[in-house]
Please model this.
Amino acid sequence: MMEPILRVKDIHKAFDGSGVLKGVSLDIHEGEVVVIIGPSGCGKSTLLRCINGLERVDQGEIWLRDQLISGLKDMHLVRQKIGMVFQSYDLFPHMKVMDNLLLGPMKALRKPREAVEAEAMEMLRRVGLAEKAQALPRTLSGGQKQRVALVRAMLMHPELLLLDEITAALDPEMVSEVLNVVIDLAEQGMTMAIVTHEMRFAEAVADRVLFMEQGVIAEEGAPASFFREPKTERARQFLQSFTYASTRKKAQETQAADVGLA
Amino acid sequence: MDWGFIGSHVMDFVAGAWVTLRFGLYGVGCSLVLGLLCCLARYFRVPVLRSVAHGYIELARNTPLLVQLFFLYAGLPRVGVRLSAEACAVIGLTFLGGAYMSEAFRSGLESVEKSQREAGECLGLTRAQNIRYVLLPQALATAAPALFANVIFLIKETSMFSVLAMMDLMNVADTLRTSGGRTVEVLFMLVVAYLALLLPVSLAATFTERRLRYAGFGNQHSV
Model:
């Protein structure tokens, strides 16, 4: 088997003495899409933030291919290879969409404007926003902003893309326009680590699902088996909390079975 | 009002205004640089430097410019450091102004959401690039009114330069008043001279603020 792109080895992270990550290990291979789910506060966002150095790990190691990146003093070269998109889009409000897209490639990667601009237009067209190139971010809808944020990250041609609950702030009708872009990226072979609460999306896009709880990976598996038959009781409960209707139905079925037995 | 007296001394006031403006602007320019550096040291929590910056700001803001100038002009020579009046003026004004400018910059930087900084970092920008392209433009939009207020404040504070025996507007007026006794005319010209210097700055401030508001900088909360 090929060497993984990313190797996370037993990392620990605490905020103000309370442990958020308590020994997380994880390999991500080229072209793999790993979806991380779990209740809020389980440490999944912190895991992503540790990977690209927005948070410093207290213990453990993170390797990007053959480079140890945890605890590096100067992360900006590493971050050029690890893209990240957040819940809050974080487009730069004082720049037009195109300038938002050009900033990273032109300043961090020192590419010439013409080349990046052509590529940026092509990518905007692909996500259906070509006509917004000269618009200011505040004139865009949430879904449009998030698509721009995805393009902005992709224009850096990262080896790994981290997505941290990128649809959590969106109105429901805008969720799919964003997630479709992500599914496109997955089909093009983009390596991704995705934190999400959209279970159907997770099932559709994931090669592997991690269920985190209280700072550790409690369960891990292929999406088909994880979503049909989670092995741990906690994962079962967590998945059930997303399916109100079936919970009720199941309760009725159990009741009926009880009655039948009586 | 003796217009003849005023007419014959207009050039004195022009010369005084030139001193006020020139050294005022030197001080403002240096204050902006010093203020920005202090502010960045504090914003990025640079070890040691942030504490030095904080200590300096408190010292500069809580002592009068007059005392600072006396210290530079009369105190330092006692320990062997002798500076010209002009150097004392610029250093003194910078010492005071740097603290005020730093706080104005900081109010701007703090108003930029933390996630903006992270978004810049995630694009692989260096810290300097992040400051230059992402943080400062947004911070300046918020800080502009405070920065302009400081510019006006500092140029007015140059009236203290008269204690250094510099012939700024204030000293020109004082000299004329005590030698000729035309208090009304002299004070009238003094007021007119300061207004002529500072009104354009005020108008520029208003204009800039309106432009920034129109551009909608820092407006990150729209849906």
In short: The interface with chain B takes residues 52, 54, 75-77, 79-84, 86, 88, 90-94, 103-104, 107-109, 136, 138, 141-142, 152-153, 156 of chain A (CB under 8 Å). The CA atoms of residues 27 and 230 of chain A lie 21 Å apart.
